[in-house]
Here is the input.
Amino acid sequence: MARIAIDMDNVMADIYSHYLTYYEAANGIKLDPQGLLGVPEGEILPDGAVRRFLLTPGFFRTAPVMPGSQEVIKALMEKYEVFIVSAAMEFPQSLREKLEWLHEHFPFISWHNIVLCGSKTIVNADIMIDDYDKNLRHFKGRQLLFTSPHNIHLKDYERVHNWEEVAAALEVEVPAARV
Here is the structure.
């Protein structure tokens, strides 16, 4: 059975919209998401707000689920060995929050299949779904780049824009009632 490594942030969890929601709540300013296209993730908000939010207790725990991710990952698990792989060591409070978030939104994924690490260069799988070039660049298997505003300019990878495209690329069927 082929093994898939799936990233969390900006793939399963909609971190970009979460940044914008946090920023608006903190500053009363609604930012235009179109203005984020091509901007490095750490620079999308003024005054170091991205890093401040990433260090805020509860930030990772309250991130919205990426539409379609739950249904497609369930379908993938019927055909593939699925591992959730997240580089979580830079923000230590994220370890517990990410685990709690997964248990709430993806209770069908066993703790045996969750890898919270510092560097994804150690990942050994057949397929990786990630939004960051730095994680895909050294990966030896099939690389699926999940579209996110910061990676819109990248051309070197097989791109998927949403979970429906992930299902199509990996040839799994998701019953219409589940999507």
Remarks:
- Residues 15-27 form the longest helix (13 residues).
